[in-house]
Design goal:
The protein is of the alpha/beta class. It folds into two domains: 153 residues, Quinone Oxidoreductase, Chain A, domain 1 (Alpha-Beta Complex); 139 residues, Alpha-Beta Complex (Quinone Oxidoreductase, Chain A, domain 1). The chain contains ten helices and 16 strands. The radius of gyration is 20 Å and the shape is globular.
Length: 329
């Protein structure tokens, strides 16, 4: 089968298409024919933990997929050959991929393959930062720095479904305008940390209850200053490449703020399974009812992954870029 691998070279990180043996499902695994796989910037950025170490062998790439079950490993219950499934995985940019049964979720009947391929990783991250750690409630205000990214748009959509007000920042005024159809309440046109006054003005001086930093260290301190009393700050990405930031201890202390990271890098299989179970209970019904629907910016043919990656890194998209399965290319 065909599968992409990530190589570290002197010219930088390279994606190469390989001919590799088709995998067999192990115990507790589903083998899935990939029909769509979402792109995620983090797996192609140094420091996010998804990259091979210097000098190591190339590794599979692609962290979420949707497709049809073609084989079942030992001990798998509740799934049949031909079922439509979506889930987080390793090596989604391929003809076939193995998905752990505890990661697998049924594709909502009304979803096409690109929509299904845009759900598992991003919305699981969003569920983590809004619900499991962020404890967002209806009537609260969310600030999303970098709202036009895949995670940013997912956070906007989910926060609106919860009943929150959403303030978002972006370097593109046109993209902010497009997100009004997703319920964006206040759009702030900036790529820098100069949004604090605008957030305070939009909240009558109170600040945001939950801030999501999907940009990195360049806006971290501003996100902290924009928080309300007992506000929470989710650190989810650093596309700006800045891994250091000032931490105002007086503000943290006086306002009783909470800062937390959102990452699955060190989570155990049991912790991941518990998260998926809670997601199925709380949010899968929202997708099935139409209250939540992933925003797919574009679908790129399987053999044009480099083009999809370039578009993602250039920040051309609003929502998710999805790679079509090779069978659909």
């Amino acid at each position: 089968m065909r599968a992409y691998r990530l190589h570290e070279t002197h010219a930088g990180l390279q994606l190469q298409l390989h001919d590799v043996p088709q995998p067999e499902p192990g115990p507790g695994q589903l083998l899935v024919r990939v029909r769509a796989a979402g792109l995620n910037r983090g797996e192609l950025i140094a420091g996010h933990g998804a990259l091979p170490a210097a000098g190591s062998a190339a590794r599979p790439v692609g962290g979420e997929a949707a497709g049809e079950v073609v084989a079942l490993g030992a001990g798998v219950d509740g799934w049949r050959i031909g079922d439509r499934v979506m889930g987080r995985c390793s090596g989604a940019f391929a003809d076939f991929v193995r998905i752990e049964s505890y990661e697998a979720m049924a594709v909502p009947p009304q979803f096409d393959w690109p929509q299904a391929g845009a759900v598992p990783l991003v919305f699981m991250v969003v569920y983590d930062m809004l619900v499991m750690q962020g404890q967002l409630r209806a009537g609260e205000t969310v600030l999303v720095a970098g709202v036009t990214s895949g995670v940013g748009v997912g956070a906007l959509q989910a926060a609106k479904a919860i009943g929150a007000k959403v303030i978002g920042t972006s370097g593109s005024a046109a993209k902010l305008e497009r997100l009004k159809t997703e319920g964006l309440d206040v759009g702030i046109h900036t790529r820098g940390p100069d949004f604090v006054d605008a957030v305070l003005q939009a909240t009558e001086g109170r600040g945001a209850d939950l801030a999501i930093d999907a940009v990195g260290g360049s806006v971290f301190a501003a996100c902290l200053r924009a928080l309300a009393y007992e506000g929470r700050l989710a650190m989810v990405g650093y596309v700006d490449g800045q891994l250091r930031a000032e931490l105002d201890l007086a503000t943290l202390h006086t306002k009783r703020l909470r800062v937390f990271g959102v990452s699955n890098k060190l989570r155990t299989p049991q912790q991941r399974a518990e998260q998926v179970s809670a997601f199925k209970r709380d949010w899968l019904p929202l997708f099935q009812s139409g209250r939540l629907r992933p925003r797919v910016d574009r679908v790129v043919p399987f053999d044009r992954l480099d083009e999809a990656r370039a578009g993602m890194e250039a920040g051309e998209h609003v929502g998710k870029i999805v790679l079509a399965g090779s069978a659909d290319a």
